[in-house]
Amino acid sequence: MVTDYMAFLERRADVCGGEWVVKGTRVTVRTVLASLAEGATVAEILADLPTLTEAAVRSVIAFAAASAEEDLPVPGAPLPT
Residues 8-18: what's their mean pLDDT? Predict the structure, then answer.
């Protein structure tokens, strides 16, 4: 599992309007996640986007998981009403 996903991702105002991208590319995190959501495998994504590596794709997945975890309610905390 990729734990240091920030080694693979960056966000710069001069690249893709400041969206998160895979470092050194113009491939956005959103693009990779959309491909995965549509059912593409990592191998298919790598074939379609040859500037990426398997570690980069896995870092996008780890980044998305960490981002989602931040938005999840804390166990035992009351839900907003």
Answer: 94
Distance of alpha carbon 45 from alpha carbon 54, whole angstroms: 9
Task: Report how far residue 23's alpha carbon sits from residue 8's, in angstroms, rounded to the nearest whole number.
Answer: 5
Query: What pTM, to 2 d.p., does this model score?
Result: 0.80
Name the residue ranges covered by the structural domains of the chain. 5-70
Q: How many CA atoms lie within 13 A of 8 on its CB side?
A: 21
Q: Which CATH architecture has domain 5-70?
A: Orthogonal Bundle (1.10)
Mean pLDDT over 38-53 rounds to 97
